[in-house]
Amino acid sequence: MAEEELPGVLILDIGGTHGVLEDLAALLKKHFRLITMKEFLENKKEMSKKIQSVFVFECRPAIDRELLESLPNLKVIGNSGVGVDHLDLKMISNFGVKVTNTPHAVADPTADIGVALMLASARRLVEGNVLN
């Protein structure tokens, strides 16, 4: 499928401090035409029709009423995290847009860190390391 035929996904940026990780962007490019917030703001009239999804990475871009009103073909907001506390789900659903997230993405690593911290505390590893 040619890039023009791919559905557009709005992202804040690629790389940098708050942009989508470059490896993740490469994966997204296989299925979507990536449109950065800068590109969108520079040509809102044309880009707004192409965007069918917004990919929220580290709570960015912010999803507000103004953004939703400017994206008439928006179908889904994909959040790359566990929670959706930063999203106004009621407002978003009023626009007929679905929200997805990745609830189990970090479950195992979180459990691993929890167990490691309990073992370190029980065995006083930090104190032992400081004494050496």
UniProtKB/TrEMBL annotation:
Entry's InterPro entries?
Answer: D-isomer_2-hydroxyacid_DH, D-isomer_2_OHA_DH_cat_dom
One Pfam family named in its UniProt record:
2-Hacid_dh
Q: Does the keyword ATP-binding apply?
A: no
D-isomer specific 2-hydroxyacid dehydrogenase catalytic domain segment(s) = 22-113
**UniProt keyword annotations, A-Z:** Oxidoreductase
Q: Name one GO molecular function term.
A: hydroxypyruvate reductase [NAD(P)H] activity
Q: Name one GO cellular component term.
A: cytosol
Establish whether keyword Oxidoreductase is in the entry. Answer: yes
| Protein's recorded name | HPPR reductase
What is the originating organism of this protein? Answer: Pedionomus torquatus (Plains-wanderer)
Gene name, please? Hppr_0
